[in-house]
């Protein structure tokens, strides 16, 4: 590996308009010295060079404070450095310059590095930065490093005709400039070096920071952090790092890197089913090339589509790869100042995008007002989104839409889908480069994009596409071994070979791999990860299926029913595509058969087992999601449930979606159902398991429809209409009675029982002798109910309101009556054997012979 450097520090200038500079020669010599000491450079050339005689036989070059450098000298030296006339091309070339820099604005603004012989009045300005950039682009050297410490050096990164953000040429580049193009570089008053050079020298010292080596990226990061701490923030170095980090200096290996002296860490280096987040970047390996490609594309384009198979790692590379690099601002100049919004559209994408423009930490009232304003603007389409983008002071806004396929879900309104796409693409065109949009979508959903015109979406995707292909073997090797090395976790070589063989030609295998590695880590021994444990746990393909099934089988029967209910609701049924994940509000999981307490307990258990994840919306509502779609595809038991329940689930989802829209729109009456749609939904309610909110939605719809009709026909028709209502009500009550009579014992298979029971009680219908064995009547309102001799064995009456209920001679053995209101209830001769009555209100209750 050959490494050459050219170090230039010019103090002296012939032109009277350029004053003498005291620090460049010292700055440059200090840089040359540290590179000689720690950088393993083969050749370091200095300009202007002087020779110091150390003794009669040893001579040492140094940078002269009195010497001068001509334009010809500098050009010839740069050509020799970056385009050497030799068959042995250096691997790395570094150019450092300290001195004056000037800008010329006659016609075209251009920057120059000043050599000693410049004379701006005669249009002899020095080394053109444009010329330098063209030289770098033609250079065969793969690793190029340029550091400029001079006034107006920021001009170097300001030429669009020679953009350094090249992609696909195999180059690694690092540019660091002392200031933005409109600033002058400063001297550190507490040091003999300039501000930038002082920070470079500090950052290049590997032993001081216990680093094995300093790279261009770690140096940029160090300078960026240190400059923030300088009071007044008078100088703003700028950075561009392209490609892989380039080693700069090398130090001694620290003890922690020797596995013989360090115990295996208790930190698991693998993510499991969850995608990598921004803060997981230090565990994220294998997608460096893809990250570099995406950064290069997003720097040049305002729309980018990232497509790949489910499980190919789209979400991870966007967050731990692209998002991390953009936030650092070290790879793409200025990206640290961008406003980046990342969203998942859900089935109401316009509502979701409006939420992205709400300020944090608002009261509910303030949030409601801001949301109303944002929604009002978005009703104007792309013009409204453009106005929202213009409200930010950030130079650019990057809107990342992950899981873009969700807009094609069956419960997403087609008109809203079209508005959303038109709004996005139109705003990208109208914002003059301030808005950038990146979408990530499952590749199998591209067919949905061509079914309609969608404002030219399919064409935009085809023209701005980056495909997330399966990892190559070397990339997979990094993803497996690099995190393990960070925690000194040994991996048996045969195990690595078997894992690579198992996931070969499996495009969606990454979450399975991460989950399997996490499980193997839990079973590690003093030998680390071994082939024996790998085989025992079912290898990559079987590990997740085995783990999920083991968790399910460890539950009680009641818990299993709740777990099944949760996983079915977290699955979006595909139409011509595979089933996908479906985020769901935890409160909407509560139904007649699954009360809040059982849902809370099961969500916590499944989250602890890493099978589901929880989050909160901006409104503070808890949202549940499967840990990854791989669970839906590879858990055989869940696949069986879906096959058995698909038709009923599709019907249920339609009603739940309508109820969700009603809720999201502030429970407004115009979103309630009427007429034929209401009638059909009410009929389906008798056999579907609906959430409490969906049931409430249908009840409100029925009442609103009745009141609307009453108001419409006027008082003259009230009596006949009420007769019609009473007739309809009688039909409903008869249906409720029939439902209760035909209810099987197992509560899961009797949806709608509690609502039916409450309607009958409210209508003063007798429930004497009814068989309600095992009924889930959690919080049921049974005030004044006639339950004489009713069978309520094993019934769940937790927190039920049984005020003044007639329970004489009722069978209540093993019933759960905890916290139930039995005030003034009749319990004479009731069988309460083994009944749970802790904290029940039995005030004035009649319990003779009970």
UniProtKB/TrEMBL annotation:
Which residues belong to any copy of the Novel STAND NTPase domain?
269-668
What InterPro entries does the annotation carry? 5peptide_repeat, Caspase-like_dom_sf, nSTAND1, P-loop_NTPase, Pentapeptide-BTB/POZ_domain, Pept_C14_caspase
GO MF terms, alphabetically ordered = cysteine-type endopeptidase activity
Which GO terms are recorded in the biological process aspect for this UniProt protein?
proteolysis
Q: Which organism is it from?
A: Crocosphaera watsonii WH 0003
What name is this protein filed under? Answer: Pentapeptide repeat
One Pfam family here = Pentapeptide
Tell me the ranges covered by the Peptidase C14 caspase domain, including all copies.
5-239
């Amino acid at each position: 590996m050959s490494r050459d450097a050219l170090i230039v520090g010019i103090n002296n200038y012939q032109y009277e308009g350029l004053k003498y500079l005291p620090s460049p020669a010292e700055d440059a010599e200090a840089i040359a010295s540290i590179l000689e000491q720690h950088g393993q450079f083969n050749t370091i050339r200095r300009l202007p060079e002087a020779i110091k005689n150390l003794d009669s036989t040893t001579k040492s070059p140094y940078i002269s404070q009195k010497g001068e450098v001509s334009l010809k000298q500098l050009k010839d030296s740069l050509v020799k450095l970056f385009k050497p006339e030799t068959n042995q091309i250096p691997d790395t070339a570094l150019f450092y310059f300290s001195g004056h820099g000037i800008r010329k604005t006659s016609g075209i603004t251009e920057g120059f590095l000043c050599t000693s012989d410049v004379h701006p009045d005669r249009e002899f300005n020095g080394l053109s930065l444009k010329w330098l950039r063209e030289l770098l682009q033609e250079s065969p050297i793969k690793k190029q490093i340029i550091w400029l410490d001079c006034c107006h050096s920021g001009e170097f990164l300001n030429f669009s005709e020679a953009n350094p953000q090249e992609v696909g040429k195999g180059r690694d580049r690092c540019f660091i400039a002392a200031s933005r193009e409109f600033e002058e570089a400063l001297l550190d008053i507490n040091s003999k070096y300039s501000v930038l050079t002082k920070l470079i020298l500090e950052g290049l010292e590997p032993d001081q920071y216990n680093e094995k080596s300093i790279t261009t990226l770690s140096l940029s990061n160090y300078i960026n952090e240190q400059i923030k701490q300088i009071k007044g923030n008078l100088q703003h170095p700028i950075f561009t790092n392209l490609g892989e980090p380039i080693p700069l200096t090398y130090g001694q290996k620290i003890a922690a890197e020797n596995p013989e002296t360090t115990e295996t860490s208790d930190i698991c280096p693998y993510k499991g089913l969850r995608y990598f987040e921004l803060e997981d970047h230090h565990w994220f390996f294998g997608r460096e090339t893809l990250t570099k490609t995406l950064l290069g594309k997003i720097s040049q384009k305002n729309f980018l589509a990232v497509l790949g198979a489910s499980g190919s790692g789209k979400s991870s590379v966007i967050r731990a790869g692209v998002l991390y690099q953009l936030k650092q601002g070290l790879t793409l100049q200025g990206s640290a100042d961008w406003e980046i919004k990342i969203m998942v559209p859900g089935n109401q994408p316009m509502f979701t995008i409006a939420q992205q423009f709400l300020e944090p930490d608002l009261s509910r009232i303030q949030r409601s007002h801001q949301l109303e304003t944002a929604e009002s603007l978005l009703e104007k389409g792309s013009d409204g989104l453009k106005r929202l983008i213009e409200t930010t002071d950030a130079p650019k806004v990057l809107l990342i839409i992950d899981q873009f396929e969700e807009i094609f879900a069956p419960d997403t309104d087609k008109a809203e889908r079209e508005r959303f796409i038109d709004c996005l693409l139109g705003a990208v065109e109208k914002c003059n480069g301030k808005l950038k949009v990146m979408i990530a979508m499952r590749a199998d959903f591209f067919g949905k994009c061509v079914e309609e015109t969608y404002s030219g979406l399919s064409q935009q995707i085809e023209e701005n596409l980056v495909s997330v292909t399966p990892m190559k073997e070397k990339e997979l090797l990094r993803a497996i071994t690099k995190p393990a090395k960070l925690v000194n976790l040994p991996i048996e070589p045969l195990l690595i070979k078997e894992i690579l063989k198992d996931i070969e030609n499996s495009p969606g295998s990454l979450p399975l791999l991460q989950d399997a590695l996490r499980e193997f880590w839990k079973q590690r021994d003093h030998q680390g990860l071994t082939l024996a444990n790998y085989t025992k746990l079912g290898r990559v393909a079987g590990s997740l299926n085995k783990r999920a099934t083991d968790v399910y089988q460890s539950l009680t029967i009641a818990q299993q029913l709740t777990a099944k209910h949760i996983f079915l609701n977290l699955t979006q049924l595909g139409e011509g595509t595979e089933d996908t994940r479906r985020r769901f509000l935890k409160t909407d999981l509560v139904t007649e058969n699954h009360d809040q307490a059982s849902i809370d307990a099961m969500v916590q258990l499944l989250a602890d087992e890493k099978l589901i994840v929880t989050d909160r919306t901006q409104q503070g509502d808890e949202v549940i999601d499967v840990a990854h779609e791989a669970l839906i595809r590879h858990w055989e038991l869940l696949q069986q449930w879906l096959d058995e329940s698909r038709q009923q689930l599709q019907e249920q989802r339609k009603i739940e979606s309508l109820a969700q829209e009603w809720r999201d729109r502030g429970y407004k009456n115009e979103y309630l159902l009427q007429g034929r749609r209401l009638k059909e939904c009410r009929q389906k309610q008798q056999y579907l398991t609906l959430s409490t909110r969906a049931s409430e939605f249908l009840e409100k719809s029925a009442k609103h429809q009745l009141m609307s009709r009453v108001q419409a026909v006027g008082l003259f028709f009230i009596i006949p209409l009420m007769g019609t209502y009473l007739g309809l009500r009688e039909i409903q009550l008869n249906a409720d009675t029939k439902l209760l009579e035909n209810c099987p014992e197992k509560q899961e298979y009797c949806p709608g029982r509690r609502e039916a029971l409450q309607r009958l009680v409210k209508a003063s219908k007798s429930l004497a002798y009814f068989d309600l064995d095992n009924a889930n009547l959690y919080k049921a309102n049974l005030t004044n109910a006639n339950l004489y001799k009713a069978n309520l064995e094993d019934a769940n009456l937790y927190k039920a309101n049984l005020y003044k209920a007639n329970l004489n001679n009722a069978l209540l053995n093993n019933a759960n009556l905890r916290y139930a209101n039995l005030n003034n209830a009749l319990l004479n001769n009731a069988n309460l054997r083994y009944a749970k009555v802790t904290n029940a209100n039995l005030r004035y209750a009649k319990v003779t012979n009970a």
